[in-house]
Amino acid sequence: MKEIDWANLSFGYMKTDYNVRINFRNGKWGELEVSSEEHLTLHMAATCLHYGQEAFEGLKAFRGKDGKVRIFRLEENAARLQSTCQGILMAELSTDRFKEAILKVVKLNERFIPPYESGASLYIRPLLIGTSAQVGVHPATEYMFVVFVSPVGPYFKGGFSTNPYVIIREFDRAAPHGTGTYKIGGNYAASLRANKKAHDLGYSCEFYLDAKEKKYIDECGAANFFGIKDNTYITPLSSSILPSITNKSLMQLAEDMGMKVERRPVPEEELATFEEAGACGTAAVISPIQRIDDLEKDKSYVISKDGKPGPICTKLYNKLRDIQYGDAPDTHGWVTIVE
Ligand SMILES: Cc1ncc(COP(=O)(O)O)c(C=O)c1O
Predict the structure, then answer these.
(1) Ligand 1: which residues within 6 Å by Cβ?
(2) How far, in Å, from the CA of 12 to the mean position of ligand 1?
(3) Are residue 308 and residue 169 in the same domain, yes or no?
(4) 119: how many CB neighbours lie within 10 A of its CB?
(5) Beta bridge pairs of residue 338
(6) Domain range holding 143?
(7) Rounded to the nearest whole angstrom, what is the distance from the C-alpha of residue 279 to the centroid of ligand 1?
(8) What is the CATH number of the domain that holds 70?
(9) Ligand 1 geometric centre to CA of 326 (Å)
(10) Residues 144 and 189 in one domain
(11) pLDDT tens digits, one per residue of 35-62
(12) For ligand 1, what atom is nearest to the CA of residue 77?
């Protein structure tokens, strides 16, 4: 086996030893199957290929200083996948079956879990797709649940740092009461042009405003947004953003730190008032924001005056990472230890 260069992993796909699968046929989920085949055999008329019956999740396993492997908020990802399945009429997988599959695939690929010292982790990617053949627009009768894993590098290679972001007004990711709250492939297809534009302009990522009024902050790329001011953690309440599990965890940690937490619409102009702000998600935990530009309005909201992450973002980031790696007690029961 070729040695893995743990220190230089990127956020990409690496072939591992096994993936796991469960098929839904005749109205029920079958047995868990273990496979070392990277490809799927699909019917060309499968609903996932034509009508977007495709859901996915993203979570991570971390190896601690004590050698133990911890999976972060497994049950929350199971619940979000169930919500997504309800949203696009797919067969729901129970939390127990989700857990069974995740634990199995992590154990089978144990040698791919990065060592504690590397700051890297094992990314876990579950997906659930409609597989039965159909030409009319209807939900499938058969589904497949697949989970693969890939070791991924630490998000901040040169250390925790701030980045510039840009509001893209030209393209919307999701409509109010559309599919934005579900983790389905279609939302990501809809985000590609805005994301490319932001990158082409030299920004770290794109910001979306609410699609109806273009007045309120929705989210940024594949992350939720939060702002900090007056000892308060403020994050958008919107019917078109993904309920981020990282954001939910940070709200709890902010509360534990004695901060107030507000979930409410956040008007764009309010960006000028934040002492700190961040993008949050599984990939980065927190990506602190240096500034957010609105090119069409010729505005630049500079959040970090000295270009460094603020003290509250840093504290929240360290608190969450410490729980994930087992360096701090798991007081909220967020971690599943792989036995
Ligand atoms: C659109 C979008 N928003 C937010 C998030 C952050 O969610 P989480 O913290 O559960 O990773 C993600 C990533 O999953 C995402 O794709």
Answers:
(1) 58, 219, 222-224, 242, 244-247, 281-282
(2) 17
(3) yes
(4) 18
(5) 69
(6) 6-152
(7) 10
(8) 3.30.470.10
(9) 23
(10) no
(11) 999 999 999 999 999 999 999 999 999 9
(12) 10
Pocket perturbation via mutation, ligand 1, pick of 60, 235, 242 by most ligand atoms within 8 A of CB: 242
144-156 CB burial, b ≥16 within 10 A, e <16: bbbbbbbbbbbbb
- pLDDT tens for residues 18-40? 999 999 999 999 999 999 999 99
Q: With bands split at pLDDT 50, 70 and 90, how would you rate the model's confidence at 210?
A: very high
Same domain, 285 and 204: yes
Sign of CA dihedral 243, 247, 252, 258: negative
Q: Which of 128, 152, 176 is the last residue of a domain?
A: 152
Q: What is the pLDDT of residue 1?
A: 60
78-122: per-residue pLDDT in tens? 999 999 999 999 999 999 999 999 999 999 999 999 999 999 999
Q: Which atom of ligand 1 is nearest to the CA of 249?
A: 9
192 and 312 share one domain: yes
Total domain count, the chain: 2
- Report the C-alpha gap between 175 and 179 in whole angstroms: 7
Residue whose token pair is 């940024």: 220
pTM of structure: 0.97
Closest ligand 1 atom, CA of 173? 1
**Torsion-angle region of 27 (φ positive above 0: left; ψ -120 to 50: alpha; else: beta):** left
User: Ligand 1: which residue has its CA nearest to atom 1?
Assistant: 222
For Cα atoms 193, 195, 200, give the angle at the middle one, nearest 5 degrees. Answer: 95
What distance in angstroms lies between residue 277's CA and the mean position of ligand 1's atoms? Answer: 16
pLDDT-derived band at 7 (thresholds 50, 70, 90) equals confident
In a domain, 1, yes or no: no
Answer yes or no: is 335 within a domain.
no
* Residues 315, 178 within the same domain: yes
Structural domain includes residue 55? yes
Residue 179 is part of a domain; what is its CATH number?
A: 3.20.10.10
Q: Do 20 and 70 share a domain, yes or no?
A: yes
What separation in Å is there between the alpha carbon of 245 and the centre of ligand 1?
A: 7
CA of 242 to the centre of ligand 1 (A): 6
